[in-house]
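Proteins fold reproducibly. Take a tokenised chain:

. . .
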Amino acid sequence: MIQLDRYIRNSVLLAMSVVLTVLTLLDLVFSLLDQMADTGSGYTVVNAVAFVFLTTPTTIYEMIPFSALGGALIGLGVLASHNELIVIQSAGVPVFRIVFSVIKPTLLIMLFGLLLGEYVSPSLEQVAQSNKAIQQSGTRSINPEQGTWRKLEDEFIHINVITPGGRELFGVTRYKIDESRQVVLASFAESARYMDDLLDPYWQLSNLRESHFGNGSVTPQQYSQKNWKVDLSPELLSVLLVDPDEQSISGLYQFANYFENQGLDSDPYFLAFWKKLLQPLSTIVLVILAISFVFGPLRGAPMGVRVFSALGVGLIFTILQRMMEPASLLFGFSPILAVLSPIAVCAAVGFYFLYKVR
């Protein structure tokens, strides 16, 4: 039985690796073409290539569930085409024992994905997004195509660039409002640095220009440096560098709670948190679905049909995810329900086919 596990593991892992490599290369080509469209005086072709290279771990992480699906379908499909699965079953090995043999290498892929998505891709994504923002916008003024808007207490803040780690900012624009929703202060600082005072940490703004509004007049002021005390830590800012789907699980949970405590909309971050946390479950369910197809409807199908089926199932799963995710934000139902619904549908179909051939 150990030799059988090793044989199935090698076949499935090889197929998963091939599928992952092909999908990643295809995505890299399209990503590079997309970045080339953004090139200009500050953002060169070399910068675009560096950006794509730094975001490759994120691409690999996102492709893992679909690579596992295609790898299981193709790897077991090869065994079925050579009648090896029939021989294995004739030897008295039950279907669910074969399923277990396929799940074991899938666990390795899942572990690799968790490590990549938690410790590698978020930090590299931060570097890539920060470098691109600096090259495209820099410190001069608000760039509507770059940066991030945030509301903190009575201030609306736009930050052009957040450096990796979140300890230095470029292009910080602030609008302060009073109780009657009128703007009383508008300011722009070329840069801000986090000063880690143990008793009372603060941000040090540099080259600051302020305009105070009141009594029908505007009072301009300029400062070479000025302290800015606000509840905005570098750890939270570093999360703002990238989209929720590209952040670490721990960062998403931290920032979602922060938004919730501030009375702001935290659902997009909780949605991304549950999606990433449950990605291993998605991977297992897609693999089980692939196995059920090999033993069920696609037992005698040629390889082209299996590849097409893998693409179809992956596309349907993605469509279900992208339908449920915005629906949860629009209608206000639980983000975890939105993430679990496509997984539950695929699991039901997979176990139904496996039950028929057990």
